[in-house]
Amino acid sequence: MRVIFAGTPEFARVALESLHAAGFEIPLVLTQPDRPAGRGMKLQASAVKQWALTHESQHITVAQPRSLRLDGKYPDDAAAAREAIEAARADVMVVAAYGLILPQWVLDMPRLGCLNIHASLLPRWRGAAPIHRAIEAGDLETGVTIMQMDAGLDTGDMLLVKKLHIGLQDSTESLHDKLADLGGRLIVEALELAACGGLQPVPQPSDGPSSGITYAHKIEKREAMLDWTQHAAVLERRIRAFTPFPGAAGVLDGETIKFWRAAVLADATRPAEGLPGQVVASGPEGVDICALDAVLRVSRLQKAGGKALDAADFLRGFEIKPGMVFRQKE
Q1: Which residues pair with 117 in a beta bridge?
Q2: pLDDT digits (tens, 9 = 90+) for 131-171
């Protein structure tokens, strides 16, 4: 089976590698254009492109169109991409965190259409940030859905679904890696079933009060600042959900501090006189901060321009004393 692969970040690279290892022929890879990254803001190829370039000897063509819309802002890019897709003579296109909307002509091009690897149990958490939002919401499980793509936002028929437990310590970073591995294995299974006509499409529910549809809106940097008037458990989940991006944070004496690990202190209630965001204790085990209903102990922190450090090391270079107050902004 000939497979066009469209994807950009590490999540997609894992799936691409899995397809290659399973023996599928991959004549064409689509990925986002190189972007500035790092402190030097030098152009950097996507994880998918980097993988494809290490396999040039296997005649994998890489295309990086800025758009696939023939009537859009970059018609020349779209036309060149169409020519490459036609030349690939693919049976199917596999899409994973690609980052471009696929117009109808792309969806219709491969014989078996376009299959998407989505990191949630659809129809819950359609959209751009399903891993972050599942953790933030306190979901107990998530998973991967292999979906037949249509013109809607993650609305196509479900082809394969596999559940995954969300651990109490899981961050977006750790859950991402588990789901990437699961997605790689599940798309291989899906294509093997597709080859023998064994896939059974299941339509998603339509909109309605009991449909279970939720939307995982894109993570914005402005969400990073914690609101200490919320429950401690909510803040703890947000810290895990925003690790590694954008990193949950607070402002202390004009300095932005990021929080990378925290726990609700089960045996400590919020002091009656404590203000939201107020430090009630500080030591090697962590910095204890008042939330709405309880105390949150932050045990890994980072100041701007520094490294993430365990509390004991962090406090050696940045003093945090009881009575100080974390705020949302300067």
Answers
A1: 146
A2: 999 999 999 999 999 999 999 999 999 999 999 999 999 99
Name the pTM for this structure. Answer: 0.94
Token code pair at residue 176: 């991402």
Is residue 14 within 8 A of residue 208, CB to CB? The reply is no
∠ CA 136-137-142 to the nearest 5 degrees? 95
Q: Say how far apart CA 63 and CA 81 lie, in whole Å.
A: 7
Task: Classify strands 286-290 and 294-303 as parallel, antiparallel or unpaired.
Answer: antiparallel
Beta-strand relationship, 35-37 and 42-44: antiparallel
Q: Domains (ranges, CATH) in the chain?
A: 2-215 (3.40.50.170), 221-317 (3.10.25.10)
How far is C-alpha 231 from the chain's CA centre? 24
DSSP string, 218-266: PP-GGGGB--TTS-HHHHHHHHHHTTTTT-EEEEETTEEEEEEEEEEEE
